[in-house]
Amino acid sequence: MKKMTVALLLMLAAWTFLITGCSQTTEKVSTDNSPAQNTVSALPSKSEDANSETQNQDKATPIVYMTRKITPEGLMTVYKALKWTPEGKVAVKLSTGEPPASNYLRPELIKDLVQQVNGMIVECNTAYGGSRASTAMHLQVAKDHGFTEIADVDIMDADGSMSLPVTGGTHLKENFVGSHFANYDSFLVLSHFKGHVMAGFGGAIKNISIGIASSEGKCWIHTAGNSRTSPWGGDQDDFLESMGDAAKAVSDYLKNGKNIVYINVMNRLSVDCDCNGNPAEPDMHDIGILASTDPVALDQACIDLVYAAPDGKSLINRIESRNGLLALEHAEKIGLGSRKYKLVSVDD
Fold first, then answer.
1. Is residue 325 part of a domain?
2. CA distances (Å), 344 to each of 49, 70, 251, 253, 327, in order?
3. Which member of 51, 101, 244, 309 has the greatest number of CB atoms within 10 A?
4. Which alpha helices (DSSP H) does the chain contain, by range?
C-alpha cells in the first residue's frame, strides 16, 4: 500500500510540470509504472556556481527542451533552444501523412521553422502500398496536404537507394536510404509523436530509420535484413532493434549526430500512426513540443510524459502490446543516444 501511495504521489509530481509549466529547468520524475529507471538532475540556474563535477555531468547528460505551447511560436522557441546551426543544404524530414484523415503535422504549424532554416521537405515512398507508394502519387499527396505551399518537396528515393554502413548494429550491416539523402548536409527531423500499429509508438527514432529508408530499405528494416522486396513476416523484436541499427547509420553519416537535430510534437496522440489514413480518434489530451540533439533522450522523454499522463492508458497499451520500449533500450545499447536526460521548460 505504501509503494502504491508513493507511486501516485510521484505521478502527480511529474504531471505538475505540464499543468504549471514549472520553472526554467525541471527534474524528470520516474513513476513506478514508468518504463524508465533514469535519475535526472535539474540543471543549475545561470546565477549558481556549479562545481566541476556537476558541470561534467551536465555535459554528459542530453537536454530535452519542452514547451506546452503547440503553436508556430512554441515550435520556434524549442528549436532556438537547441542553439544548432545547420550546415549547407538543409533537409526537413517529416511525414506527409496518408490520406484522407491522418494526423500529420500541419503546414501552418511548421511553416515558419521550415522557412527559417531554408529547408527542403524530404520524404521516402512507402513499402506497403497506399497513396504514397510511388513518387508521382506521393508528390500529389504532399501538394494536397499543403506542404508544397511552404517549401519544395523531395521524395528521396525517387531515383532508388543508397547504402549506408551500420557500425555496431545487431541485425543490419547496411541501411538503404533514398539516394537523394546524399544531397543534404544537415537534417531537421520533425516528428509527430503517436502510437504505431507495428512499432508501438513513432517518434524521432522511427522517423530517421523507417522514415528515411527507401521503399526497399523499409522492407530491409522490417525483416531485419532478410528481404528488400517485402516488409512482411519478420520477427517483431528483430524489427524494433533493426530500427535502431538503421537510425544509428543515419546519425553516424551526419558527422556522428552533429548535423541532425530532432523535434517531437505531442498532439493528436492517437494509438495509430500517420501512415494510417483513418486513425483512431485520440482519447488523451495534447502535451507539448519537445526538442533535443539526442533522438533516444527525446523519445524517452515523450514516453515518460505519456506514462505520467492520467489519460494515457490507450497509448500505453499500444506501446506495451508491441514491446515498443525495446526500441529505446536497444538504441541506447548500440550507442545511438541516452535514455537519461534533463527536461528543461522553455516556457515563461
1. yes
2. 19, 16, 23, 28, 24
3. 244
4. 2-20, 52-60, 72-81, 107-116, 135-144, 204-209, 215-222, 236-253, 295-308, 313-321, 325-333
HSE-up of residue 102 (Cα within 13 Å, Cβ side): 25
DSSP 8-state secondary structure symbol assigned to residue 307:
H
Residue 33 lies in a domain: yes
Q: Please state which of the ranges 7-11, 184-188, 242-246 shows the lowest mean pLDDT.
A: 7-11
Instruction: Tally DSSP H helices, then E strands, for the chain.
Output: 11, 12
pLDDT at 162 over 50: yes
Looking at the domain assignment, is residue 53 inside a domain? no
Query: 196 forms bridges with which residues in the sheet?
Result: 200
Whole domain around residue 86: which residue ranges?
Answer: 2-43+62-345
Quote the CA–CA distance of 205 and 156 in Å, as a whole number: 18
The reported pLDDT for the residue numbered 348 is 82
Residue of 332, 294, 329, 325 whose CA lies nearest to 62: 294
List of E strands, 179-297? 186-192, 194-196, 200-202, 260-266, 288-292
Task: Tell me, yes or no, whether 48 lies in a domain.
Answer: no
**β-strand pairing of 342-345 with 90-93:** unpaired
d(CA 344, CA 9): 21
Residue 73 Cα distances to 121, 166, 275, angstroms: 20, 37, 27
* Rounded Cα–Cα distance for residues 114 and 120 (Å): 8
- Report pLDDT for 35: 58
pLDDT at 147 over 50: yes
User: What is the pTM (predicted TM-score) of this model?
Assistant: 0.86
